[in-house]
Amino acid sequence: MSTLEHFLTEIGLPEAGRDCVLSPALPQERLQTLCSLLEQDEEACLQALKTETEPNEAALCLFSLYAFSQREAWLARGISEQIYLDTMRDLTLWYQACMRKTGRPGVMEWDWLLNSLKGRLVRLGRLQYEPGDLEEAIRTDEYSFPKGVRKLEIHIPADGKLEPEQISSSLSQARIFFAGNKYRLMHCHSWLLSPALHRILPPSSKILNFQSFFRVYGEDFSYRQAEERVFGEISDRTECYPEHTSLQKSLKAFLLAGGRVGMGMGVIPFSEEKH
């Protein structure tokens, strides 16, 4: 039988994070109360977390305990242990993000992280998939999808490269996992789909290969996601962005020359095998 400590190792949580969870600052009774509240009233639980002395650390302890408690429920739904663990590994990614930003153990972006812990999205190989309904009709040169049809929103976890084989495998897994649910399309809204990247990256780029899986039909400039993801933060002083990687150098030069990189929007018909 798996223990909490073994689970934390399985999802790759670093030692400092494991120590924090296994020897929590919060009393066990308080953690159990919050865990029950998280099951019953998510918003009330998050508000309660904000009152703790170290909210991000408390969230790490609570979310780890909750994620561990969900194993049997996921398996009972016919979800494999590998998919369960891969999905719960989002805890580790947000722990790492918290460490980079604050230098202290914890997790950030609670609302987003709970999508994984509560099973509102699943990770299948390299990509995450979030079921939902299409909010606005989409028309491309080849396809038309009316508002309200079922879709899978694709998210790209920040823990690996975009190897073509991994992307193709993940899409195939999604078609099997979600088969029979009347999904019409897979959709993605990300800086990785920005058409501007064709002016920045070489043709051999794995990012451009990732784009080729989609029919990119638009671009949204409401948020400077590319800068946040590539440089670690958004700054109005573009000249101060770091140039440690070739992507950072190329993007910085593009921005300094007056270019803009938005968030591209792309679709993949659910029933279509590509690549």
UniProtKB/TrEMBL annotation:
Residues 121-268 form the GNAT-like C-terminal domain. It holds the Pfam family NAT_N. Signal peptide: none annotated. Gene3D superfamilies: 3.40.630.120. Residues 3-119 form the N-acyltransferase N-terminal domain. It comes from the Bacteria. InterPro entries: GNAT_C, NAT_N. This is DUF5596 domain-containing protein. It comes from Candidatus Eisenbergiella intestinigallinarum.
